[in-house]
């Protein structure tokens, strides 16, 4: 039982980290696209 609970906790933590990585990557892409658009003006 305890092993299952620990595994679930690890999976939840990994999921949170992956979500944060995706968020920061998406923000970086948005910033690059914004800079690219500004340079074309």
Give a description of the structure.
The protein is an all-alpha fold and 41 residues long. It has one domain. Helix content is 95%, strand content 0%. The protein contains one helix and no strands. The chain has one helix spanning 2-40. The radius of gyration is 18 Å and the shape is rod-shaped. The protein starts with a helix and ends with a helix. The model has no long low-confidence stretch (mean pLDDT 94).
In short:
The chain is mostly helical and 41 residues long.
Notable traits:
41 residues, mainly alpha
Radius of gyration: 18 Å
- Average of the residue pLDDT scores: 94
Task: Write the H/E string, N to C.
Answer: H
Number of domains: 1
- Class by alpha and beta content: mainly alpha
Unreliable runs = none
Query: What is the approximate shape?
Result: rod-shaped
Q: Helical percent range?
A: over 70%
Percent strand: under 5%
Straight-line N-to-C gap: 61 Å
The profile of the biggest β sheet is:
none
**Tally of alpha and pi helices:** 1
How many strands appear in the DSSP assignment?
0
């Amino acid at each position: 039982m305890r092993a299952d609970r620990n595994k679930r906790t690890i999976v939840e933590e990994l999921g949170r980290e992956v979500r944060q990585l995706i968020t920061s990557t998406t923000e970086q892409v948005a910033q690059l696209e914004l800079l690219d658009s500004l340079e074309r003006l």
